[in-house]
Predict the structure.
Amino acid sequence: MQRTYIKDLSNHIDQEVKVQGWLQTLRDQKKMQFLILRDRTGLVQVAHYRPANEELANQISALGSESALTITGKVVKNEVVKLGGLEIQLETLTVENAAEIPLPYDPFDDENVPAVDFRMDWRYLDLRRPQNRLIFDVQTSMEHAMREFWLKNDFIEIHSPKTTSSPSESGAELFQIDYFDRKGYLTQSPQFYKQMGMAAGFERVFEIGPVFRADPSFTSRHMTEFTGLDLEMSWIDSHEDVMELTERWLQYAYQQVKEKHGSQIEETFGFELQVPEVPFPRITMADALKALKEVGYELPPEKKGDLDPGGERALAEYIKNKYGHDFFFLIDWPVSVRPFYHMHHPDQPELTRSFDLIAGGLEIATGAQREHRYEVLKKQALEKGLGLENIQYYLDFFRYGCPPHGGFGMGLSRLLMVMLQISNIRETVYLFRGPNRLNP
Ligand code: ATP
């Protein structure tokens, strides 16, 4: 018999069906047993009359909740049943995988939700919670919309290697690996390789892939491995062209998510998803520092031209008050806090043509126009104290005709945090990786 999804049962009244799912609750009464079965589409009540089959009744009584079951039975209308006014009269039951008793924790007990670290140990149970399923439904639709936008705008998808011989960002956050008889590293971003796509004449590339950072910090927004949304585009005039595309791309993704999941997001998370208007406000780093002074926020002195998370939030509040916007680009960062490959401003050489995108008070992306002139790029690398031998393969990309270009890198789980107003990244990633967590 073919499986019927619970959501389709009303089309099968008075027919025999096969349903498959998890035992959410069992009401084991003297005469009747009621099993609430859950599949990915909903819940249904399955009724069993004890005297009809005592052996089966005993088997049901012994079932732990969350056991995986296959059930056949007849669908009947029953007005008193809250779940859709129908129930299944049980005929056969197969226990595909019995759940041990007790559960490490009950994912459906909203009164007693354990701390996130404990839930991470039992992530597969945690992911059975409907609000968690929704996060990944949203993620799926969002990525689909993002690709759709990119494809409509002539981007090519690339898959760059995740092993490399040299760092692309700061050397401090590198995972070193044994690569046969030499040292290798896990890539901290596809930066160099997506730029190679520009030298290759692909003109517009994107990649959705893993990014590794040996960052020993324990924050609510850092992971040692995350999924990066990366883009690079050629023949731009400045970082403005990248920002202009980024905001339209995000707007499209939000629109699609709202269309598909807006009402469920409202029901589950209690807010209406707002599609951001474009253009997003832009504020220079210099003006941002003035604004922070104005609102009385003091940056820690060691930050020297960079922002700390408190500064990002204070600035977000300032922008929200001034422009009514949750997204903004913080532009024109000083050379001192940006990597060597960011292009400097032609008329203000101490500044870069770069931006961070801040959303809901959180940094979600960094982008820039890249330096594509071989001699200038070499000079900038030397000024940052880099050894050219290690990155010569990268510098070689700029020797035989590389167009002006720029792009950004964004963290997928950070964007989901912002979109769904979730404060800890451990909740918006399928499986978290941090300094203390290498399994499950
Ligand atoms: P932060 O200042 O928050 O540590 P970063 O400046 O190191 O971030 P970039 O190197 O610019 O970040 O990376 C681009 C984007 O990748 C970030 O804006 C963020 O969305 C995401 N990202 C960076 N590091 C992490 C991380 N450790 N965990 C999750 N996402 C990250």
